[in-house]
Amino acid sequence: MNRTVRRISAGFGVGALALILGLAQNAKATMPADEVPAVDDIMKKVCSKKGAAGKCTTAIAAEKWEDAKKQAKIMADLGSKLGKNDPPAGDKADWDKLTKKFAKDAKAVADATEKKDKEAATTAIKAFTNKKNCSNCHSKHKG
């Protein structure tokens, strides 16, 4: 009997530990709305090969609007936060101008996907992913 009680107690202890660790992991995964991610984090989540912009481009082309809206929302949210960071290099005024354009272009994608307007969404995502915009900012501000 004593042995059974110890096994049950140990099982509850392990379960409680797993629950606590799971909650702690989930807390790290969700970012408060007012938290500003670092520039590198935003670039990875939005502009990398597996980032939101690439996924959004694919979803728009396939007219998978729920997927496109989800990715465009990530773009718009993080796009609005980019300019809250200090520039890694270069002039602050230019950084402000370029990050406002980044945010505006990301919002245009979100607005077009919300309306399920393929032509507008395609135009907006092409403007957002335009390599000239990327190189213009990176040449001046990438640290």
Descriptive overview:
The structure is a single chain. The protein is mainly alpha-helical and 143 residues long. The protein has seven helices and no strands. The chain has helices spanning 2-29, 39-47, 52-61, 65-82, 92-114, 118-128, 131-141. Helix 2 runs antiparallel to helix 4 (65-82) and helix 3 runs antiparallel to helix 6 (118-128).
Condensed summary:
77% of the residues lie in helices and 0% in strands. It has helices at residues 2-29, 39-47, 52-61, 65-82, 92-114, 118-128, 131-141.
What structural class do you assign from the helix and strand content? mainly alpha
Number of helical stretches of at least 4 residues: 7
Strand content is under 5%
Instruction: Sum up the overall morphology in one term.
Output: flat
Task: Give start-end ranges of low-pLDDT stretches.
Answer: 26-30
Tell me the number of strands. Answer: 0
In helices, the fraction of residues equals: over 70%
SSE string, helices as H and strands as E:
HHHHHHH
Task: Give the end-to-end Cα distance, rounded to a whole number of Å.
Answer: 66 Å
Give the topology, please.
Elements: H1 2-29, H2 39-47, H3 52-61, H4 65-82, H5 92-114, H6 118-128, H7 131-141
Helix pairs in contact: 2-4, 3-4, 3-6, 4-5, 5-6
Q: What key attributes describe this structure?
A:
flat; mainly alpha; 143 residues; 7 helices
